């Protein structure tokens, strides 16, 4: 079937990254179609306990800036279900864990947040957990309410592009769009068919997440354990995560049976446990690969389609949401025709290094988990370091993503970082003022020349003249639609500098 109406953008994949990107593009009034391979988005693997995902600070800030946070705040945070148990357990601990590196925890009381000069207490806190299925339901509902068309049961299986558009084939139907974005996960068809090189390091282990019943549950002690053959984590009543350094020989080669799970569990734990029932199981590996380009002509990649790594440390979803936040407004400006030169290319320039760093973060954790004496020695050193103030602060910075900074040039230390969520004199927060998806110039001292300057960019930059409870020593700042600071001034604003930054990110003035 041939669909004659061309879309501005077709997105392959209604995972969290594709859905959030669709919302970002609709904010700019573009016509967006999401094609999703699966008929039914629901899956036990997206629900507790396996479907729990940790959101880092940049992801929470992105949702806050689009007014999605209240909808996403999960059962885990509102006190029901398994999330309640987890939260209660966390609250009761004498020292509250703030996160971990290869299972080695750092504690909130050791983190020195005063080292982060431009962070204000706000909704992002140190992180939040969400259930994958809940997140996708909220994002899909928002996307549909905004006018995104979502077609399920239609996997993209072919496409071709010209200088003007992309023709996409999915389940026997043909669609036309100006752009195609592959958000179709780690085994991305768009990436494979689109001629993107995908390079990295191969897997050393098969990882398992399993929900089991054990004949002798007390044989295993709860918590994470490194053993001479791998690693296992056990939480009662029967949630198990295991890593076996088998060169990923088992992953996706055979059915996961109770016998196999029992055999691996016995090998990695060294305990004589008996699995009497297997309710749910999946495998994963530590293969760490990244596309060497995120754009080929009119085809782009975002999320797991652009990079894969082990789930250790829980960064993949956050990395993908960061891609979508960064790409959405740039692609929108490109389609509208008001993007400055090179804006779309800055998506790769900014996001590829962030992805590469996360891949290395996951590789470093694997190095620490290998079942050998060298890794145990390294583990002992990390345990010592993570317990120091500077060590805990360093790991918190990396795990929470609070020190993310793009290299945008400019001498002010805030440029390239996430804008602080200022509490403004009118009672609103900066994040709320970014909901429209426009850029924003926040002018604490209401300088008339700054207002005049912003007016020249018409509807692309909004102007807010409002004082703040704590200005962090600033007098004005220009914020991109993704919440990243493009220009900032401490004292009398430099008009030339602000105009230069506005042109660099928002194109020619009207
Ligand atoms: C066990 C485990 C634990 C994890 N824990 C965390 C965590 O705590 N924190 C974190 O940040 N990350 C975590 N991750 C990683 C995170 O789940 C992924 O990085 C995230 O889901 C990526 O989102 P995505 O939208 O890019 O891809 P996906 O979620 O994979 O979505 C891709 C979508 O595309 C669809 N699709 C596939 N092919 C096609 C096609 N040809 N056409 C159309 N649609 C297609 C799929 O059906 C799917 O709906 C974990 C992963 C695992 C496996």
TrEMBL record:
<dbReference type="Pfam" id="PF21274">
    <property type="entry name" value="Rng_hyd_C"/>
</dbReference>
<dbReference type="InterPro" id="IPR002938">
    <property type="entry name" value="FAD-bd"/>
</dbReference>
<dbReference type="GO" id="GO:0016709">
    <property type="term" value="F:oxidoreductase activity, acting on paired donors, with incorporation or reduction of molecular oxygen, NAD(P)H as one donor, and incorporation of one atom of oxygen"/>
</dbReference>
<keyword id="KW-0285">Flavoprotein</keyword>
<dbReference type="InterPro" id="IPR036188">
    <property type="entry name" value="FAD/NAD-bd_sf"/>
</dbReference>
<feature type="domain" description="FAD-binding">
    <location>
        <begin position="7"/>
        <end position="362"/>
    </location>
</feature>
<protein>
    <submittedName>
        <fullName>FAD-dependent oxidoreductase</fullName>
    </submittedName>
</protein>
<dbReference type="Pfam" id="PF01494">
    <property type="entry name" value="FAD_binding_3"/>
</dbReference>
<keyword id="KW-0274">FAD</keyword>
<dbReference type="GO" id="GO:0071949">
    <property type="term" value="F:FAD binding"/>
</dbReference>
<dbReference type="InterPro" id="IPR050641">
    <property type="entry name" value="RIFMO-like"/>
</dbReference>
């Amino acid at each position: 079937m041939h669909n004659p109406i061309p879309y501005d953008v077709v997105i392959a994949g209604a995972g969290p990254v594709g859905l959030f990107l669709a919302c970002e593009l609709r904010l700019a009034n573009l016509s967006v179609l999401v094609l999703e391979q699966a008929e039914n988005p629901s899956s036990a693997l997206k629900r507790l306990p396996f479907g729990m995902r940790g959101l880092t600070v940049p992801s929470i800030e992105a949702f806050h800036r689009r007014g999605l946070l209240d909808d996403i705040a999960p059962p885990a945070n509102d006190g029901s279900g398994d999330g309640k148990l987890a939260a209660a357990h966390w609250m009761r601990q004498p020292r509250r864990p703030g996160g971990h590196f290869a299972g080695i925890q750092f504690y909130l009381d050791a983190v020195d947040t005063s080292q982060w000069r431009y962070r204000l207490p706000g909704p992002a806190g140190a992180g939040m957990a969400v259930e994958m299925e809940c997140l996708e339901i909220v994002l899909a509902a928002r996307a549909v309410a905004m006018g995104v068309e979502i077609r399920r049961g239609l996997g993209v299986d072919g496409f071709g592009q010209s200088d003007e558009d992309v023709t996409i084939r999915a389940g026997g139907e043909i669609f036309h769009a100006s752009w195609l974005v592959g958000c179709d996960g780690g085994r991305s068809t768009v990436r494979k068919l689109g001629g993107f090189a995908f390079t990295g390091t191969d897997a050393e282990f098969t990882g398992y997440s399993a929900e089991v019943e054990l004949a002798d549950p007390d044989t295993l002690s709860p918590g994470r354990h490194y053993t001479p053959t791998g690693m296992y984590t056990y939480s009662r009543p029967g949630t198990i995560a295991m890593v076996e350094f088998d060169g990923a020989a088992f992953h996706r080669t055979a059915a996961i049976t109770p016998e196999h799970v029992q055999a691996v569990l016995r090998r990695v734990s060294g305990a004589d446990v008996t699995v009497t029932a297997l309710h749910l199981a999946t495998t994963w590996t530590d293969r760490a690969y990244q596309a060497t380009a995120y754009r080929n002509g009119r085809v782009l990649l975002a999320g797991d389609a652009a990079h894969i790594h082990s789930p250790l440390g829980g960064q993949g979803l956050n990395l993908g949401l960061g891609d979508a936040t960064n790409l959405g407004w740039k692609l929108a400006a490109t389609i509208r025709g008001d993007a400055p030169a090179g804006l779309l290319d800055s998506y790769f320039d900014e996001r590829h290094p962030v992805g590469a760093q996360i891949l290395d973060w996951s590789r470093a954790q694997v190095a620490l988990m290998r079942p050998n004496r060298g890794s145990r020695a390294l583990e002992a050193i990390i345990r010592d370091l993570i317990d120091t103030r500077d060590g805990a602060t360093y790991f918190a910075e990396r795990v929470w993503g609070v020190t993310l900074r793009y290299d945008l040039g400019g001498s002010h230390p805030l440029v390239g970082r996430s804008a602080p969520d200022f509490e403004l004199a009118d009672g609103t927060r900066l994040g709320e003022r970014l909901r429209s998806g426009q850029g924003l110039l926040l002018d604490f001292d209401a300088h008339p020349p700054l207002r005049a300057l912003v007016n020249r960019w018409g509807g692309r930059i909004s102007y807010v003249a409002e004082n703040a409870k704590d200005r962090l020593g600033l007098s004005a700042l220009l914020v991109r639609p993704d919440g990243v600071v493009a220009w900032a001034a401490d004292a009398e604003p430099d008009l030339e500098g602000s105009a230069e930054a506005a042109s660099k990110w928002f194109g020619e003035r009207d």
